[in-house]
Amino acid sequence: MLSKAVVKYIKSLQVKKYRNQHQAFVVEGAKSVLELLQSGFELQHLFVTDAFLREHTALLGKGYTYEVVKEEDLVKAGTFATNNAALAVARMRQLPPLQLSQSDFAIALDDIRDPGNLGTIIRIADWYGIYKVICSETCADFYNPKVISSTMGSFTRVKVYYLDLPAWLQQHTEKYKIYGAALNGDNLHRMQPKPEGILVLGNEAKGIRPEVAAQVNQLIKIPAFGGAESLNVATATAIIVDNFMRNAK
Amino acid sequence: MLSKAVVKYIKSLQVKKYRNQHQAFVVEGAKSVLELLQSGFELQHLFVTDAFLREHTALLGKGYTYEVVKEEDLVKAGTFATNNAALAVARMRQLPPLQLSQSDFAIALDDIRDPGNLGTIIRIADWYGIYKVICSETCADFYNPKVISSTMGSFTRVKVYYLDLPAWLQQHTEKYKIYGAALNGDNLHRMQPKPEGILVLGNEAKGIRPEVAAQVNQLIKIPAFGGAESLNVATATAIIVDNFMRNAK
């Protein structure tokens, strides 16, 4: 059973202020916890159900400290409606300094507010082998439990940086090609873009801010064939990145 | 103000059984209600806030019966956390019989359970001009409020049919090419598929059922370049459909 103090601590980590204060975050569900255990993150707590323990005895036997609890304890402490697997508290890690090389392809996000969208974009980045995601400071927080769970484990591989996006882009606009997704850009299907440079996606409702758009070299649109006015930003990211990656060497 | 009886009625429509009994469903938020008003759906109720009325006076003046209410009334009756716009109750409509022509491109969904995924897929279909989506009977319900809201208005254009998917596919396997998304299929980037036939996407966790896969002519995989094990099913739909549509005439 989880003590009241531990439940209170875990619950506090749903709030960014307390996550930053404790430099810790929560990981829930079988897939995400398994990825966490196989990554370099340091654990503060690991709670598993009997079912999860039986299925992953060998892995958990590799020196992890864990406590067996009931599903109802995991649900009480966490954010999932059901969780018959595991919940961990991990320490945030220090990112290496952000550096781009000439052959890098990075995703930049301007004011992506929805945690599910951010998490899904991180998962897409990981699928396509893009390990640097640069966020404006107003984006959803990487360590938000909903972001972590939507990444389906990709949070262990993709590095997400928060910074002053217009200023950072301005420093890179000469050396790197900067693409921006927009409804009035060049037709993606008529381009053969190489996966190099920086691809900027903008806010769910408003798109890319003018001060960010000012740093973009080429606007791209996904050609529309029907009646929808727009696509979800994670959907758009996936389509554009896939079009770039089909030209990867 | 909304009467208790009306709130109770609207709330009952969150449940499929009552939606079917009353042949009615709920539409929430500015974008979705605006699309509804410009579609052929028959309205049972239309509640708008003062703000929405002021912004759309001309449209609402075209003979709609509506009632002005407060945001808190819309939130109380509906499923949104905030809604300073509108909420409507519309009557379900009869679909025309499902018929494919040789040049049609349709999406078939096998056991897509998550309403957000189904709604997002409908929005993607609408973007690419695909107006027939065929669902196995175990898919999320089209009229679920979360499906409706995730389509961002595309529910007014895309026709979604529910049927016995393996049996239906079996009837079409000779005349139409049937593609299926899978992690072990042919590399999508090495194909130049024309947007004709039927594209099948499977359950979020388990993929396409064997009895459905048995009707598929060609399995397709989205090439992976990184560490993620899979993509969200709506993301995968978008990427595959985009690859087909780049070869549209």
Q: What's a concise summary of this model?
A:
The structure is a homodimer of 249-residue chains. Helices cover 34% and strands 21% of the residues of chain A. In chain A, helix 7 packs parallel to helix 11.
Structure report:
Chains A, B: Keywords: Methyltransferase, Transferase. Chains A, B: Belongs to the class IV-like SAM-binding methyltransferase superfamily. RNA methyltransferase TrmH family. Chains A, B: Pfam families: MRM3-like_sub_bind, SpoU_methylase. Chains A, B: This is RNA methyltransferase. Two copies of one chain form a homodimer. Chain A has 249 residues and is α/β, with parallel strands linked by helices. Chain A has helices spanning 4-12, 16-22, 30-37, 50-55, 57-60, 71-77, 115-127, 145-150, 165-172, 210-213, 233-245, and strands at residues 24-28, 43-48, 67-68, 86-91, 105-109, 132-136, 159-163, 178-187, 197-201, 218-221. Chain A folds into two domains: 4-91, 2-Layer Sandwich (60s Ribosomal Protein L30, Chain: A), CATH 3.30.1330; 105-245, SPOUT methyltransferase, trefoil knot domain (Alpha/beta knot), CATH 3.40.1280. In chain A, strands 7-6-5-9-8-10 form a six-stranded parallel beta sheet, sandwiched between helices. Chain A is elongated. The mean pLDDT of chain A is 96. Chains A and B meet through helix 7 and helix 11 of A and helix 7 and helix 11 of B.
